[in-house]
Design brief:
The protein is α/β, with parallel strands linked by helices and 340 residues long. The chain is built from 12 helices and 10 strands. It folds into 3 domains: 43 residues; 160 residues, 3-Layer(aba) Sandwich (D-Maltodextrin-Binding Protein, domain 2); 114 residues, D-Maltodextrin-Binding Protein, domain 2 (3-Layer(aba) Sandwich), CATH 3.40.190. Strands 1, 2, 3, 4, 5, 6, 7, 8, 9 and 10 form a 10-stranded mixed sheet that branches. The protein is globular.
């Protein structure tokens, strides 16, 4: 700015010297003013202030941990702080609504799991938003399996033990869920094994994990990263992984499909904004996140919490979300889960 005024004063003196330079000076002053304004505004490019990630699950959840892994390198790449705000409840719907109500400028984003943007359609009678219309897809992040976990000293040594006991005690064996994925896992177990396990809702899976460790619940389906931490700490035992095949992250843990062949459920994570985020902002965010996901350090950190990177650009993510809504409706129907 100081440089600009020094130059402007110089040209004003030239104008006083020669009235013939009016047009030239007018053009030059306009260029200088525009250049100065752009410098003050950072070139008018996104982002120019902190970005908020709304995580619709509590701290310690897989969604929360993934958001924190991504946010640090992304903040450096974009040159702005990223603030994480946890808004748990209603399987991600509370956080989703906060983002939907935000200005569509790219500064408020939902770091979502499949619950908020796909499977809630199958589980809630009156979902307060339309995932196909009320979000702007930004980028796919990763996918993970869930793990059926019991207390470390539980009498259940494997999935067959749990099924046998639950059949003998209909409505007496309890399971906690804190996301639509974990809820559907319980419903699928009931359906395929012919059980009547009592499902109990929580604001997040970590809260259900606490009650399993405390002896209030018989079991829960936890994300694999949380499950590994509990197993290593000696507080919980893994009985089965929800994906069709064993996870490369925990190859010693059997897949539920080894006991119940049709069992196959995985969760995924993506970043979306409110409807109407400008395409140039979406592209900048998407490209930056994909760049972060390609880094070995990021991939290693995601693997440590049980996530496999799923870098998906916005156009492909839109189609993926639409297909997942259809898929989760079918899975919920197969599991005999009635929308609440």
């Amino acid at each position: 700015m100081r440089y600009f005024f020094c130059n402007l004063n110089f040209w004003i003196s030239v104008l006083n010297y020669s009235k013939k330079c009016n047009l030239f000076l007018l053009i030059l002053a306009t260029i200088c003013l525009n250049s100065s304004a752009q410098n003050l505004q950072g070139g008018g490019s996104f982002p120019t202030r902190p970005i908020q990630f709304v995580v619709p699950f509590p701290p310690g959840s897989a969604t929360d941990m993934a958001a924190r892994v991504i946010s640090q390198p992304l903040s450096v790449l974009l040159g702005q702080p990223i603030v994480i705000e946890n808004k748990p409840g209603a399987s991600g719907s509370i956080g989703a609504m906060e983002v939907i109500r935000a200005a569509p400028d790219g500064y408020t984003l939902l770091f979502a799991s499949n619950s908020a943007v796909a499977s809630n359609v199958a589980l809630l009678k009156k979902i307060p938003y339309d995932p196909n219309k009320d979000f702007t897809p930004v980028v796919g992040i990763g996918e993970t399996a869930l793990v059926l976990m019991v207390k470390a000293n539980s009498p259940y040594k494997n999935l067959a033990d749990l099924i046998s006991t639950a059949k003998q005690r209909p409505g007496k064996v309890s399971a906690g869920f804190g996301s639509s994925s974990s809820q559907i896992c319980i419903g699928m177990l009931n359906k395929l094994a012919g059980l009547d396990v009592l499902p109990i809702p929580y604001k997040g899976i970590p809260l259900a994990v606490n009650d399993v460790v405390g002896g209030t619940l018989d079991f829960t389906f936890a994300d694999i990263g949380n499950a590994q931490a509990q197993a290593k700490g000696g507080t919980m035992r893994a009985l089965a992984v929800s994906s069709a095949k064993r996870s490369q992250l925990a190859p010693d843990w059997p897949s539920a499909s080894e006991t119940l062949p049709a069992f196959d459920i995985s969760a995924w994570f993506a970043m979306v904004g409110p409807s109407g985020v400008p395409r140039e902002v979406v592209d900048k965010l998407s490209q930056a996140v994909i760049q972060v996901l390609k880094r070995n350090e990021t991939r290693e950190k995601l693997a440590s919490i049980g996530l496999t990177p799923m870098p998906t650009p916005p156009d492909q993510l839109q189609g993926f979300i639409s297909s997942e809504i259809v898929k989760w409706k079918r899975i919920a129907k197969d599991a005999n889960i009635e929308p609440e």
